[in-house]
Write a structure and sequence with these properties.
There is one protein chain. This protein has 346 residues and is an alpha/beta fold. The chain folds into 2 domains: 132 residues, ATPase, nucleotide binding domain (Nucleotidyltransferase, domain 5, 2-Layer Sandwich); 163 residues, Nucleotidyltransferase, domain 5. Helices cover 40% and strands 18% of the residues. It contains 10 helices and 10 strands. Strands 3-2-1-4-5 form a 5-stranded mixed beta sheet, sandwiched between helices. Strands 8-7-6-9-10 form a 5-stranded mixed beta sheet. Strand 2 and strand 3 form a beta hairpin. 50% of the residues are buried. The mean pLDDT is 94. The protein binds 5'-O-[(R)-(carboxyoxy)(hydroxy)phosphoryl]adenosine and zinc ion (ZN). 5'-O-[(R)-(carboxyoxy)(hydroxy)phosphoryl]adenosine binds next to helix 5 and helix 6.
Length: 346
């Protein structure tokens, strides 16, 4: 992707909603509810469906929707209990309404509508990626605007020019698989189960990252990504090595291939955008090797670096509440006909 030039104008000032928000996230395989007040996360409850989807080796949409139906009310109740606030104190309800599995999204949005309607408070639909993007607001020292954000999750690998809250420009992205998919598919091929990112990281701890040379996708001066080649290379490796494959070495080599390309492209984007602040968000941001390598590279280059605590990297409702907060403070709200969308631009 060809990008240039950068933002102009004064740094953005962030005003947040002044009452507690109930936020709900059900776009994929986690049922989550959180209570967020300003930048403070009062509670963040996540019920994972991973154990259920593990038997099929991936997320089954119909099963995910049914599991959300079972979990949603207990999860919301727990979020209120942990935050220790009464429903009457709530100022708004927000829910992820795009993009995601439509059946799964509908469960969260329907619950949000019912609660907002009964309490007569504003309802807001939130873009899942805007949630990831603004998950760094939970940090004690949140990033300044503008900054560059690397979003890496199971469905996305994007470099975003975050000019101001709500003003985003995708400057680099994957041309095929997402980084999380490369971890997940690689883990499946290595017999490490689902979801693969954490399993690869654990296995890689005792492996040699330079044992097997794996392709890094796309050569040249690009800030786009391609991860389909590394997946095929892991398949070939397992076929070639058979029983003699050293699994920890293969996991470490796969992690090395993915992490090094993410770090290289993020730094190139920083240079190209003439930026001095980088954030790292999304499920793959939970990868400890990626976190430490990016942090070290930023320090070396004099950039500030921010990444949320692990619980706000993988899917969670707190990030949805944080993203909702500045929009609600601006007076934005949706009607009772709020719909869900499987695909949506940031
Ligand atoms: O953001 P997320 O929870 O869901 C999506 O919006 O996709 O990201 C899930 C992805 C999965 O591919 C998972 O394998 C990956 O994040 N992931 C990790 C780690 N923890 C989760 N990848 C690498 N290392 C980890 N520690
Ligand atoms: Zn996500």
């Amino acid at each position: 992707m060809d990008v240039q030039p950068r933002y102009v104008g004064a740094p953005a000032v962030l005003t947040l909603f002044d009452r507690p928000i109930l936020a709900i996230e059900t776009s994929c395989d986690e049922t989550s509810a959180a209570i967020v007040h300003g930048r403070t996360v009062l509670s963040n409850v996540v019920a994972s469906q991973i154990a259920m989807h593990r038997k099929w080796g991936g997320v089954v949409p119909e099963a995910a929707a049914r599991a959300h139906v079972e979990a949603i009310l207990p999860v919301i109740e727990e979020a209120f209990a942990n935050a220790n606030i009464d429903k009457s104190e709530l100022g708004a309800v927000a829910a992820t309404n795009r993009p995601g599995l439509v059946g799964a999204l509908s469960v969260g949005v329907t619950a949000a509508k019912a609660i907002a309607y009964s309490l007569r408070v504003p309802l807001l639909g939130v873009h899942h990626l805007e949630g990831h993007l603004l998950s760094t607001l939970a940090l004690d020292a949140p990033p300044q605007f503008p900054h560059v954000c690397l979003i890496v999750s199971g469905g996305h690998t994007e470099l975003v020019d975050v000019q101001a809250p709500g003003k985003y420009r995708i400057v680099g992205q994957t041309r095929d698989d997402a980084a999380g998919e490369a971890f997940d598919k690689g883990a499946r091929l290595l017999g490490l189960g689902y979801p693969g990112g954490f399993a690869i990281q654990q296995e890689a701890n005792s492996g040699n990252p330079h044992r097997y040379a794996l392709p890094k996708g796309l050569s040249g001066d690009t800030i786009d990504f391609s991860f389909s080649g590394v997946k095929t290379a892991v398949l070939r490796l397992t076929e070639k090595e058979g029983a003699s494959l050293n699994v920890p070495d293969a996991a470490a080599s796969l992690q090395e291939a993915i992490v090094s390309v993410l770090v290289e492209r993020a730094l190139r984007a920083m240079d190209r955008m003439d930026s001095s602040a980088l954030t790292l968000v999304g499920g793959v941001a939970a990868n400890l090797e990626l976190r430490s390598r990016l942090a070290a590279a930023c320090m070396q280059n004099g950039y500030t670096f921010a990444t949320p605590p692990l619980e706000f990297c993988t899917d969670n409702a707190a990030m949805i509440g944080l993203a909702a907060s500045y929009r609600l403070a601006r007076g934005e709200a949706d009607g009772w006909d709020l719909d869900v969308y499987p695909n949506a631009e940031l």
